[in-house]
Amino acid sequence: MYLSPRFRAFAAGAALLTASALAYAQQLPNVVILATGGTIAGAGASAANSATYAAAKVPVDKLIAGLPEISKVANVKGEQVFQIASESFTNDNLLTLAKRVSALSKQGDVDGIVVTHGTDTLEETAYFLNLVVRTTKPIVVVGSMRPGTALSADGALNLYDAVNVAASKDAMGKGVLVTMNDEINSGRDVSKSINIKTEAFKSQWGALGMIVEGKNYWFRAPVKRHTAQSEFNIDEITALPQVDIAYGYGSVPASSYEAIGKGSKAIIHAGTGNGSVADRVVPTLQKLRADGVQVIRSARVPGGFVLRNAEQPDDKYDWVVAHDLNPQKARILAMVALTKPLSSADLQRVFWEY
Fold first, then answer.
1. I need a surface site. Which of 99, 202, 212, 229 has the fewest CB within 10 A?
2. What is the pLDDT averaged over residues 160-177?
3. What is the pLDDT of residue 13?
4. Is residue 9 predicted with pLDDT exceeding 90?
């Protein structure tokens, strides 16, 4: 069949462009986005709805398709692990997600992993992954405070930044990270501090860095044990023990601690001030400890840390303090730690180290 010189030239040019595009793609890192739902996958009735919307509506393939800019950062693939609002996350969800992250981290063709997540329990999932996935590859958890349908939606830039960080060699070995509102925070330290602003996630010890126009700027690194240095391994965990939180407040009845402690391997006391315990509650916590329930003093205040043997004689009562972990993160660490037969002394060591 005769082909004109012009057509042959066009075909050769197209082949050259295809080969060039393929070569470019092969130079890019490979990032997998594991989607779990949340506001970042949410939709409101109108562009004016930034706080009233339905979470977990947009599938991961549409999130990726709506952000073509990430194709210049990494070769991205998406998996829909769950499609739920994060307040409905369960221990089983944590296990399923962490095992998938762990499996992907072992693949030679995966350079980084992004997890999209609702913001209500994002900090808990990020810390869980930080404790149990043994890898130096970047793992980035990301969400948004506004659905993608809203004016000034934050999800697209947050996701772009997350892929950017997950694709970066300079993010390796820093544990699980959270990228929102241009900041890079440690999954251990970060917490949701407000529910109606895009700068909702903060760490009391400060951000690790920032992302500006696709470039990472680092200012500090985590010092607590995490990921590759962890003594815990999701590949060895099949179930998580029951750990519950009891909230301290004025006139709190001891009976609430009795009810919460039933069936629990540990109870997190979300105390006032320095993890203070009301005098009428102390005997109940002593009895729970005598019955084999670990008692861990945390605090409901957003900053600082609980001092051991201050407010309460922890050594005498054989109690543990949560250090600077808030109650919800103390629960995560206690669940992970108590998958092993640890004494209260061992458990306290874990709280100091992680």
1. 212
2. 98
3. 53
4. no
Q: What is the DSSP letter of 170?
A: G
The pLDDT of residue 226 is above 80? yes
Higher pLDDT pick, 11 / 227? 227
Looking at CATH, the fold of the domain delimited by 242-353 is given as Rossmann fold (3.40.50)
pLDDT for the residue numbered 12 = 54
28-229 CATH: 3.40.50.1170
Residue 214 has which token pair?
A: 């696709």
Hey, is 201 helix, strand or coil?
strand
* Domain boundaries, given as residue ranges, for the chain: 28-229, 242-353
Band (pLDDT 50/70/90 cuts) for residue 26 is confident
In which element (H, E) is residue 185 found?
A: strand 183-186
Question: By C-alpha distance, which of 172, 210, 168, 204 is closest to 189?
Answer: 204
Joined together, the tokens standing for residue 37 give 């739902």
- Which pLDDT value is given to residue 19? 47
Which residue, 216, 150, 144, 208, is CA-closest to 181?
A: 144
Looking at the DSSP bridge assignments, the partners of residue 76 are 31
**Closest to 29 in 3D by CA, of 58, 59, 1, 71:** 71
Same fold across 28-229 and 242-353: yes
Phi, psi of 176 (to 5 degrees): -75, 135
pTM of the model: 0.92
Q: What integer best gives the mean pLDDT of the chain?
A: 94
Cite the active site residues: 39
